[in-house]
Amino acid sequence: MTKIHPTAVVEDGAQIASTAEIGPLCWISSRAKIGENVRLLGRVTIMGDTTIGEGTIVFPGAVLGAGPQDHGNEFQEQARLIIGKNNIIRENVTMHAGTPKEHFTTTVGDGGMFMINSHVAHDCVVGNNVIMTNNAVIAGHVRLGDGVILGGNSAVHQFCRIGRKAMIGGMSGVARDVIPFGMVTGDRGKLRGLNVVGLKRSGMDEHTVKSITRAFMFIFKGKEGTFEERVEQAKEKFKDNDMVMEQVKFIEEALEGRRKILTAE
Questions:
Q1: Is-catalytic flag, 122?
Q2: Which one of 155, 180, 233, 236 has the fewest beta carbons within 10 angstroms of its own beta carbon?
Q3: Is there a catalytic annotation at residue 146?
């Protein structure tokens, strides 16, 4: 039987799994869907059409599924927030529902950790195993790849893409796309190199890491030809390295979409 504290407010229509726990002073919307073994520890607010996947733990003060901070779209009946499985959502985290611009949906993957006061804005797509450290914030329509880490007090500008396993340093502002495995630091974030430590911790062998590093130096630090020409040459030069090809594809998508991509100095 679902454990619901007597001080919690659960509106009629809310779908709550039998193994979920709803702590004191929580408020659950009539359209909420709370999965198996979800724990709302207390004073958690679940608004609108919000889905929380099994095993997710939400700490006090979190507000999930509120209308977007997008003028004119603050209150849309169709807006929804979908949160995956086994996430840790700490105190005072906010995640907003989507707008008509992105099918009314904000999506958060599985296995993430969202530390105190972090914020996921409307229409974002957050991958699996993402870590957003205290006070890290992402604006509307941002895409975070799997395994991205955002340092404390960092901020990502709207519509930016942060590639898989990229690392954004604390207090960095990011206003351009960041390649997969990139390392960004600085108050106005700059691409400093690759997240080598993160790659090694993920089990990447030394040979693969060195090959990715050589490709990075060739594309971003090379002196021959233009940046676009070096990207094209890398497709042949490093064609047997899937991770380099992932970076090349990411860059090509940015160039084709006339997007700004963070480059190394």
A1: yes
A2: 236
A3: no
